Each structure stands twice: as structure tokens, then as C-alpha cells.
Amino acid sequence: MSEESTTSSPIEQTRRAYRYLNSGDFDALTGMFGASSVWDVSRWGLGVHRGVKGIRTFLDDWFGSLAEYQVEIEEIRDLGNGVVFVVVEQTAYRPASRGPLRVRSAPVFVWTDNAITQVTVYPNFDEGRAAAGRLAESRG
Known about the structure:
Layout: H1 3-6, H2 10-23, H3 26-30, E1 33-40, E2 48-50, H4 51-64, E3 68-80, E4 83-93, E5 101-112, E6 115-122, H5 125-138
Parallel strand pairs: 1-6
Antiparallel strand pairs: 1-2, 3-4, 4-5, 5-6
């Protein structure tokens, strides 16, 4: 873990995670996760991915299938107790596609000891916001 990550707020760390994702630096991104971390995209029908290796495989499979992509943060809120609620728009191009694929989602990041322990991606913003609020309260 870099010195920068130990001195940053959860919002700064979350922004850094998206910079790594947008640059395709999956090594740096997965370096932000712990051994028992979880990336849950089951609400999108894409499963639950556990551990650094499982998360890396998902990232390679999903983002690696795209000709290009960009994830833009529209909203980001630190709800306290290591919980960050985000609204993002992913714009992607699949090989041989005629136009972009645009997907908006509401990821909820959970940070513990400067590592991402869980990311849950919600298709419904209100559901994600409510879940993030309950999670922040329960961790308090």
C-alpha cells in the first residue's frame, strides 16, 4: 500500500480507484483491495467476485471486452464510517459497435484500514443510497 493511500480520505481513495480503472491500471486498482474483498455486481446479473484474484478476473473479463471505456463520477459522498456512495456513468464501446453503451450505476464502496473491502454496484440509485446509509449507520 502506498504512502498516499494511508493519508487520503475515503473520497480521495475512491477517486483514485476510478483513475486507475479509467487508465486500465488494474494492477494498481486491485492493489487497493484486501485478500477477502468483494466486488458485487449481482444486481446486474454479473455475479459476486471475491478476493483480489476474483476481482481482477472480473475486471479483465468485463473491461477487457471493451474497445474503450470511461467511467465518470457524477456524484460522490462520504457517508462516514468508511462508506462512500457514488453515482457514475460508464461510456463504453464494444468492438464493431455502431455507438456507445452508456450505463449509469450507484456503486457503494466500503473502506477498512485504507483498503476497499467491498464494492456493491446498484442499478437503482435510491436503493444504493438507502443501502449505503444503512451500512454507514451500522458501522458507526
